[in-house]
TrEMBL record:
It comes from Ambispora gerdemannii. ATP dependent phosphorylation of adenosine and other related nucleoside analogs to monophosphate derivatives. GO terms for cellular component: cytosol; nucleus. The active site is at D296 (proton acceptor). Its EC number is 2.7.1.20. Pathway: Purine metabolism; AMP biosynthesis via salvage pathway; AMP from adenosine: step 1/1. One of its GO terms (molecular function) is adenosine kinase activity. It comes from the Eukaryota. This is Adenosine kinase. GO terms for biological process: AMP salvage; purine nucleobase metabolic process; purine ribonucleoside salvage. Residues 25-338 form the Carbohydrate kinase PfkB domain. Belongs to the carbohydrate kinase PfkB family. It catalyses: adenosine + ATP = AMP + ADP + H(+).
């Protein structure tokens, strides 16, 4: 009998290699202090250098998997399932064990010809520069998703979340899930994930946007999306509203746009013109350990309540709460001893 997981998440599973870096390292590899990019050939020596010359911390990551673990952290057992591709190697086995330790069910596609993907996470002054070498993660295939074992999980789920990063891997897989959600009146959510996606994968984002019931992003990603579409809007609130008012296929529910802004209030926009702001939880600089994964944690917290039928206000509050916990940890991790979220 197939278990019925309410939340189905799909993305690029990666092993994060985190180090405390400096501006010189970023400059050497042409990196920005608060950005996410895909590795090019010139970045390959970076992975060797940070392991050799810095003190790395290894975390089971990939944006969508971080979010899935965050959601499961606040959900009852066996609520979330995650799909992606890993290599048939030690790193892939490590990822599986780490995810399952967090209570997450993973149904990885496993390939023999390439290694499990990695991500260099360079931390500088409460900012993070992410350089992802997808490797096995980019081998995911629609045929795996459509296999009877995997597709049964899609049919059983009621909520779906896919990171924008996944569009660099398998747009057909993302579209298949989006169309299923729309046809069955289920909730389909995505994340803008990084400015480069709006810039270089505009057509792919636009192919998915009519299916968005929930769309997440931060202020930099929202600005990049507006720029890619030559919108004149410069204020984040107006960009969020413009995204909310994009054409939508399933008209049985309105789209909700959620834009985080670091320490500034989170913006939620609706197509009817309603825009709301929600202040984040204040935190002192000396309490911040690592902001890597805070956005993923926010979405995980948000979804953990939303899939239980809670309000947008309660969902945002849970997102802020989990992100606040996350920045006090190293990497996109959550305390081993579970802390219950109690709405105020």
């Amino acid at each position: 009998m197939v278990k019925k997981y309410i939340l189905f998440v799909m993305g690029n599973p990666l092993l994060d290699i985190q180090v405390k870096a400096d501006e010189n390292l970023l400059e050497k590899y042409g990196l920005k202090p608060n950005d996410s990019i895909l590795a090019e050939e010139k970045h390959m020596p970076l992975y060797v250098e940070i392991v050799k010359n810095y003190k790395p911390t290894y975390v089971a990551g990939g944006a969508a998997q971080n979010t899935a673990r965050g959601a499961q952290y606040l959900l009852p057992p066996n609520a979330t399932i995650y799909v992606g591709c890993v290599g048939n190697d030690h790193l892939g086995k490590q990822l599986r064990m780490a995810a399952e330790k967090d209570g997450l069910c993973v149904e990885y596609m496993v390939v023999d010809d390439v290694a499990t993907g990695t991500c260099a996470a360079l931390l500088t002054d409460h900012k993070r520069s992410l350089v992802a070498n997808l490797s096995a993660a980019e081998k995911y295939q629609l045929s795996d998703l459509k296999s009877p074992e995997k597709w049964k999980h899609v049919e059983n789920a009621e909520y779906f979340y896919i990171s924008g990063f996944f569009l660099t891997v398998s747009v057909p897989s993302a579209l298949e899930v989006a169309k299923h959600a729309s046809e069955k009146n289920k909730v389909f959510s995505m994340n803008l994930s990084a400015p480069f996606l709006a810039q270089f994968f505009t057509k792919d984002l636009d192919a998915l946007s009519p299916y968005w019931d929930l769309i997440f992003g931060n202020e930099n990603e929202a600005e990049a999306f507006a720029k890619a579409h030559a919108w004149e809007h410069e204020e984040i609130k107006q960009i969020a509203l413009a995204i909310a008012q994009l054409p939508k296929i399933n008209t049985k529910r309105q789209r909700v746009v959620v834009i985080t802004q670091g320490a500034d209030p989170t913006i939620v926009a609706y197509p009817d013109g309603t825009i709301k702001e929600y202040p984040v939880i204040a935190i002192a600089d000396d309490e911040i350990v690592d902001t890597n994964g805070a956005g993923d944690a926010f979405v995980g917290g948000f979804l953990s309540q939303y899939v239980q039928g809670k309000s947008i206000e309660e969902s945002v509050a849970a997102g802020h709460w989990l992100a606040n916990i996350n920045v006090k940890q190293i990497g996109a991790t959550y305390p081993e001893e579970k802390i219950a979220f109690v709405p105020k």
